[in-house]
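Subject: Interface between my chains keeps coming out wrong

I've been trying for a while to get a sensible model of this assembly. When I model each chain on its own everything looks fine, but I need the whole thing in one frame so I can look at the contacts. Pasting all components below, labels as-is. Any help appreciated, I'm running out of ideas.
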Amino acid sequence: METLIASPEAPPGPKAAAPKTAGSPWPRFLLGRLAGFAGVLVMLVVGTFLIVQLIPGDPAQVMAGPDASQAQVEQIRHEQGLDKPLLAQFGDYATGLLQGDLGSSYTSGIPVSEVIANRLPFTAQIAFLAVAIALVVSIPLGMAIAVACRGGRRRTLDTAFTSVTAVLGSIPEFVLATLLIMFFAIKLNMFPPSGAATLDSMVLPILALTIAPICTLARVVRRETATVLAMDYMRTAKGRRLKALRLYGRHALPNLMTSTLTLGGLVLTGLLGGAVIVEFVFQWPGLGTGVLDALVKRDYPVIQGVVLLLGILATLLNLLVDVVLGLLDPRSLRGKAGDA
Amino acid sequence: MMQKLRRSPALMLGLAGLAFFVVLGIVAPFIWTDRAETLTDQTHLAASAEHWFGTDALGRDIFARTMVATRLTLLMCLATTAIAAVGGIGFGAAIWVGGPRVRALGQRVIDVLISYPSVIFALAMVAILGPGVGTSIVAIGLATCPAFARLTTNLAASIAGRDFVSTARLLGVPPSRLLRRHILPNIAEPLLVLLSVAFTVSLKALSGLSFLGVGVQAPDYDWGAVLHKGLEGIYLNPWPALGPSLVIILAGLSGGLIGDGLAAAVNPAAGRKRGYRAKVEALTSVPAYDAHDEDALAVADRLSVVLPDGTRLVDEVSFAIKPSEVLGLVGESGSGKSLTAMALAKLLPDDLTAVAGTLKVGDLDLNGRPPAGRLATEIGIVYQDPSASFNPTLKLGGQLTETLRKHGGASRAAAAEQAVGQLAAARVTLPEQRLKQYPYELSGGMRQRAMIASALLTSPKLLIADEPTTALDVTVQAEVLGLLREANERDGTAILLISHDVGVISAICDRVVVMYAGRIVETLPIERLRAGEAEHPYTHALLAATPTLHSPVDEPLSSIPGRPPHPAGRPAGCAFASRCPLARQQCHDELPVLTVTDTGATACHALHWDKEVLA
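Reply #2:
Try treating it as a single job with all components included. I did that and got this:
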């Protein structure tokens, strides 16, 4: 699937000659990306605003819950500004956001920004660790397998790698999390099954979150490495009789990173969604459990705030991937800046 | 495609798994609904022969619930995939036919949507619509739409560039018809792959939502909902969670296998089986005439390049290169000349093996394991395509000086200084600035000059130039050849020049080796080649096929009829016999051996006929 839905703006092949332009392509690239980021931000704000507006029937009634009296419903309608015209409501929402005011939870009365400030660090901890671990494990693993199995060597290893990654990669993170709790927490009692009290409590959530992405990414890296190894410039590098670390690390790695990251970016943003599920299983006090809790309580300001924030995080992650791509292969800057 | 599909065990296994679950989905509710939904007082029972996965808080059998849930789970996956496919393909098609501006904007929107985590989007949908079967289907279906939309536009873009579409457009076929009649039928296969992947992805996502408690709500239940309940008692009783987990894994695995199998079937390059190393065969012929030349700088004695299946792409070629000599290696593409050169450079592709009686450059024995540093510095290589032979992600400076720094012990600054000197000698303009540039910032001719400079930087004893001018404009070709000759005259560097072009060879070489179908058919001094005094009919044919200033312009250029034999199907006799105007029965039956003449060597039976006739 990664190949099929890869962005059509993938970096050009070695034969694509870029036009010679004076100066660094970076300012144009960054401006284009920032404009794109602003566009996405507007889409996200409108989208989260619409969450309440799109509730079928009477939003105030749904927010108040089925048992609320008519007076309570009217009170919520007024408090949430649902009796104002649509544009005025959006104006209030947008100005609030600009001032850092995301509204207040109406079950606890705590400002949403505070709810987020309390929970974000926990999600950030596991999400960023998971992204880092996924990259650090899958890239060397995929490369090592590609190098070891190049030109049809070690067919058994090749088959074993393909099968194991296919099986592990197809296990949903919530199933994996459940199995990990059963085995490591309950049976072996090695790690705590839930909570975020100690450092070991991070081990199982991170494992549950990273195993499937590692498998997917390692397969992508393996395929891309095989492609890169067949390139003429790798033969040139081999002709310089370099040590393996330099040959693969300096000459192959940057080239396979461009296509790997273009595809891997999707896997990495998908990790944010996985984090929500894994947090639930391990009762990790992050944004995921926060938004689920809010869903059950129909606490719309919290839902809107968290959905907005997770969206921004996903977009930032994408931006980061593009910048890293630009650093690795400057040719990608021109294409991307051109139509941003 | 069907034949490939049959051969893939992964796909078969996946389809079998899917068929099993489909049958289960149909029959399970008839068999197990009673046990699955009847409340009993046997609550929270552990797994037993009676209750394979135990019972839940209301005394219902969890195995039965898992089985019954198959139907709802599969139907939801089906509905979700349908929404995703119809919506996504529709959206992709709409922005494709909407013209360039809509297309550009639409693709950016797809980019954004595709990178938004589907779980979070689904949670927002749940917030709007409230949890339930319908919400889950709509949410996950919409979240998967962008993948289909991007695939549709990607494929449409690749197909729209093909000739028949341009023709249809020129003829004024409207875009909607173009899409329906020409484009959609051509993208069916990749869409099939994505459909199977989407099915698996929706299984994960739908089960995930139910698992979180915001998907399917009681009294309905799917696998995720059963697992959600099972998780609550996991400390006392693992089976209520383990059972549905295993079922979800099996179903996901079946879907994954189908996706992988289909993708492999669509991509013809995948799944090609190859052995690895060929068995080293004994040498069959006697050492060739010049392999024992004491003064030779480089010697290849009965060198073969062998495929894993034993096919000899190069069959026992022998030649020697004298110090300061420029030796040309000429032949059609597929004659094995580049493989011969790469064997001498110890740079054969991974699946090829070189076998030789002697293979050496100077005192470097290439049959053994020569030290990397000496190999890198004493043999310089100029590659065919300068635009593909430089690493596109590294600056030129680092690439040009790498051998000096890693094997010559030069510091970064010293190596750069030498490189500037060598670039200037190769008449690369602005040499200092080039070091800080990326390869794509140079023209093809400049890149090849830089490649030559790089190869000469370590003062190699032998320079191997593999079709160094083939990828260049004609105007640049002569200059690059001049550079090679210059290096030979200035430093006494011996050169092995590989080319399919007799003109290039005769421009700078001292002596020529002519190869045909993996074997040497003739070696001769350049004067005789220039004079057209070759002995072998193939060499004559090559010369006749080369235009010169003196060729009559009103006559068609001669070409050699037929094609060279495939290495695996080389005939018993002379490989050129079937195309040779002189061939007799002997040529088809007996392999001619290289016979030394006063100036070279030729492998042709006809030589002896002349002698017979003369005698």
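Reply #3:
Confirming on my end. The radius of gyration of chain B is 35 Å.
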